[in-house]
Write a structure and sequence with these properties.
With 211 residues, the chain is α+β, with helices and mostly antiparallel strands. It is built from six helices and seven strands; from the N terminus they run βββββαβαβαααα.
Length: 211
């Protein structure tokens, strides 16, 4: 966070650190910092992002994963800037890279329940949107004819498995605190974790049943 400095700030020399080349001490208490007014001097692509209300904001990128529902294998990954529309944009980008245009279902949480995203699924990908309804003080984009189908309930149950690759990558892998900078390097690191997760998952899926 010490690298998150005002965009229009003048370049500082080393005089404040005795010419040692180290960052000068800086008091951040009470300073208002936003992505519009500040940026990181060590990784300009990283954005200030808060995962949930009440949590501390951190400089971050967003990693996205698409899985197939039958076996829980990762079929696509995407790394994006941390912003409010990144999840839906990344989902469409990942679907674009999945070969074939046969009829599919796409399950996701309430954050994807927007008319534009649902219409894109139907029009561009011939996909049935099994999106969790967000109908709190708003109108959902998911029609009742979709939610009545038994497959919708199954998708809502299985879609939560998308958290498993993230959990493994943070607990067993090195994704929790990657020592890399820049979207390109982090995207490769993120994708490598997905490949490793698939290999471990495949070993379990292909293991012979115990006698």
């Amino acid at each position: 966070m010490k690298s998150f400095q005002p965009v229009d700030a003048d370049d500082e020399d080393d005089s404040g650190s005795g010419g040692s080349g180290r960052n000068a001490a800086r008091n951040l208490r009470g300073e208002r910092r936003t992505n519009a007014t500040h940026r990181s001097t060590t990784d300009p692509g990283a954005k200030l992002y808060k995962k949930a209300p009440g949590q501390a904001a951190r400089l971050a990128y967003l990693g996205h994963i698409a899985i197939e529902n039958r076996h829980g294998l990762v079929v696509a990954t995407e790394l994006t800037e941390a912003n409010g529309t990144a999840e839906r944009e990344a989902a469409l980008a990942m679907l674009e890279r999945i070969p074939g245009r046969h009829r599919i279902t796409v399950a996701a949480n309430k954050g994807y329940d927007t008319r534009g995203f649902v219409e894109n699924l139907r029009r561009e990908f011939n996909a049935t949107p099994h999106i969790a309804q967000n109908n709190t003080n708003r109108r959902t984009a998911i029609a009742a004819r979709t939610t009545r189908h038994p497959g919708y309930a199954a998708s809502q149950k299985v879609r939560k498995r998308v958290e498993e690759p993230f959990g493994w990558s943070k607990a067993a892998g090195l994704l929790r605190r990657p020592m890399l900078r820049g979207a390109e390097a982090l995207a490769g690191w993120f994708n490598l974790h997905a490949v490793a997760y698939n290999l471990i998952r495949l070993r379990k899926l292909l293991a012979p049943d115990p006698a």
